[in-house]
Amino acid sequence: MMRLLTIALMMLTAAATAAEGTLRVGLVAFPPAGADPRKSVSAIGAYTWSPMLEALTAFSEKSELMPELAVSWGAPTPLTWVVKLRPNVQFSNGTPMDAAAVAANIAWLLTPDGRTSVVARSIDSISGVKVIDPLTVEISTKTPNAILPRELSALYIVEPQQWQSLGPDGFAKQPIGTGSFMLESWGPTRISYVANPRAWRPPKLARLELLNLPDLTPRTNAFVTGRIDAVMGMGPDEQPQIEAVGGRLHRRAPMDVMSIVFIIGEGKPADDLRVRQALNYAVNKEAITKILLHDLTIPASQGAVHGLFGYDDTLKPYPYDPAKARALLKEAGFEKGFTLNTEIIISQNANDAAAYQMIANDLAAVGVKMTLTPIPLPQMMKIVNAGEWRGDSFSQIWGAIPTFDPLRTLRLHTCLWAKPWYCEKTSTAKLQAALAEFDTAKREAMIKDLMRYYHDQATALFLYELPVLDAVSKRVRNYDPQRSRINYESITVD
């Protein structure tokens, strides 16, 4: 027994020492919930949780669904999915990641506490789970759900005993998963990880550090001075500084549409469809993408980026037509204009502050005074979740994370959202029908119909597809991100 223990320790030591170097990555934010993976489905969480936790499925950069802890899946009936798991996977504490562990994770989501979590609300069609054999689970749903395997990318599998014994708050301080790294420390400005010697895909790095850098200037300075090796949330204007130190600007596929969402139904000017359409006609989105974003992206025509399932490529962005905007405002009784109070997040995306100023200038030209109130990301998340907006509109991305299906974001823009800013029967009924459709072709057609409906209703000022630009140091090798995740496990540093 002692000899076996010695051999096991030697194997773990060898695995740990095989990885070399430290990668330091700058992020625009850390998740407010810390390391509790049930409290968010955002990319912010994915960037910080994915080093140590893994889901059943994941996505390629081209939005293709890929296996992660699951290796295959199928639906023998419209209300049943059977998922086969990857063999010989362990949590970092040595316990097996098997069907019982997956079933325990899903079962928690069905508890009273679990049902209140953000992840449970994102996978709310699940009604039960059953262990078929050590590497097979059967998941039942309340209604047909054609995209359940895509939704499972939001469910990071935690070590059940650790979760049960510590609870969500305790687990957030001592998380245990199957990822390539293990958490060393989590602070407000820095998160540190070390290589997980039991990982089924062992990292090539000994350490990983993530830094919280919410403002663009400190992010750029940290990269230029060599304090970090890669950083997200960069803009095209920073490219000369990046290249001057031997780095490069890595362009990723867009994931989100930038917009300004209108509060509708509370006696505000945007209650009138003509006003909402006028605001869309008033903004020169082509100028923003050309001047500020260096043609690295395109104006948005709908609440989804091109290439997503259900994207309608026949839709065109509202053209820049200030004369038509003024005519519509006059028709709606706002010939003298009005004030549009807008809460925004800045320094999160490329040249966003300058873009908002161009938008404000364009609206001023048609008589609409746009006041801009910058607020921190955590406060904006609270506004969205609790309905605590103080203005007439707020900045929001129409994202597809975690399913890369436009329907997920559309839930926020219907009566299905707990604190809706747009609650209207037709759109809600269309969304519910699309969510329940199991036939892929029919579902795609229904999503396209929804894209057109929201385009015509102009519930938001659709701006542009957000360019995703990372600065990458010359010492970084194999930098090849997936959708909403960084390939931390395969990166090396010189």
**In total, how many beta strands?**
22
Q: What is the CATH class of the largest domain? A: Alpha Beta
Measured between the Cα atoms of the first and last residue, the distance is 41 Å
Question: What percent strand?
Answer: 15-25%
The helicity comes to: 25-40%
Instruction: State the helix count.
Output: 17
The structure class reads: alpha+beta
The outline comes out as: globular
Indicate the mean pLDDT. Answer: 92
Here the CATH topology of the largest domain equals Dipeptide-binding Protein, domain 3
What can be said about the biggest beta sheet?
A: 7 strands, mixed
CATH homologous superfamily placement of the largest domain: Dipeptide-binding Protein, Domain 3
